[in-house]
Specification:
- With 251 residues, the protein is of the alpha/beta class.
- The chain has a single domain, classed as Alpha-Beta Barrel (TIM Barrel).
- The protein has 10 helices and 8 strands.
- The chain has helices at 8-14, 30-34, 37-44, 79-86, 91-101, 125-129, 148-164, 190-211, 225-230, 235-241; strands at residues 20-23, 53-57, 105-111, 134-137, 140-143, 169-173, 216-221, 246-249.
- The strands form 2 sheets. Strands 1-2-3-6-7-8 form a 6-stranded parallel beta sheet.
- β6, α8 and β7 (216-221) form a beta-alpha-beta unit.
- α7 (148-164) packs parallel to α8 (190-211).
Length: 251
């Protein structure tokens, strides 16, 4: 494939300083669950001054449920988010507001394959209807990125959230969780992941053009080429085609 053509505005933004802070598992402490909405956001986004970009973890809004009003996904049942919604708080919009008010960029990270959480409240019938779309590992089932239906569903979900919210960038987290390709065939099937990254890049550039803004794209990958290749991540090709603006190395 040829190299993606990026605008001058995009290239200029890519050349800016990138000192990231990742706010991971942002909803997981009992204290946060009990704080008032205002105190929750103030507490969650106490971030170092030297960081100019904040990547927030969208773990509760993934492939099959959403914490925002979606036309594709049903709302996730969760007491904390129901409390936010009852208070009239759009959690994604509030994330962006709090981080932008601090003069920093707000990026969203998407875990390429989430482990099953709150299955009693948020069942996953898709995994019973299409078990062949998933890979069993470590007591969970991971998304199989060699399945076209999984890739297309992800593209629709990610396009919706990036069109709906003013995130500065989207980070695809390939570290949480693997494997995402059939074990033993990861490198053989690497083009499945590359095609997903290619289509996502094209879609984000399209959204950016429609909305008159630049949307950056990054990926979190293993910290060596061998690790990337074992997982089926052809990062050399991603770089050749300009599919990502930066890589975050290591777990």
């Amino acid at each position: 494939m040829g190299k993606i053509v990026l605008s001058q505005a995009h290239l200029k933004k890519r050349g800016q300083r990138k000192h990231f802070v990742l706010r991971d598992d942002i909803f997981c402490t009992i204290l946060q669950h009990k704080l008032s909405v205002k105190d929750y956001f103030d507490f969650s986004f106490s971030i170092p001054d030297e960081a100019d970009k904040v990547i927030i973890d969208g773990m509760y809004s993934g492939d099959w449920y959403s914490v925002y009003e979606s036309e594709i996904l049903p709302l996730r049942k969760n007491a904390m988010f129901e409390r936010f919604r009852n208070a009239g708080v759009d959690v994604f919009a509030e994330w962006i507001k709090h981080i932008h008010e601090r003069g920093k960029e707000c990026w969203l990270t998407h875990r390429i394959s989430e482990v099953d959480v709150e299955k009693d409240l948020n069942p996953l019938p898709i995994k019973e209807e299409h078990p062949e779309w998933f890979i069993p590992a470590f007591g969970y089932t991971m998304n199989n990125m060699s399945v076209p239906e999984i890739r297309q569903h992800k593209l629709k979900v990610l396009a919706e959230v990036m069109r709906k919210y003013d995130f500065d960038g989207l980070d695809i987290d390939f570290e949480r969780h693997t494997p995402i390709l059939p074990v033993g065939k990861q490198w053989e099937l690497r083009e499945c992941v590359t095609e997903f990254m290619r289509e996502l890049r094209i879609e984000l550039l399209k959204i950016g053009k429609e909305q008159g803004r630049v949307i950056m794209m990054s990926a979190r990958v293993p910290d060596c080429l061998d690790g990337c290749h074992q997982d089926g991540l052809d990062i050399e090709e991603w770089i050749r085609e300009d599919l990502v603006d930066c890589l975050s190395l290591g777990s």
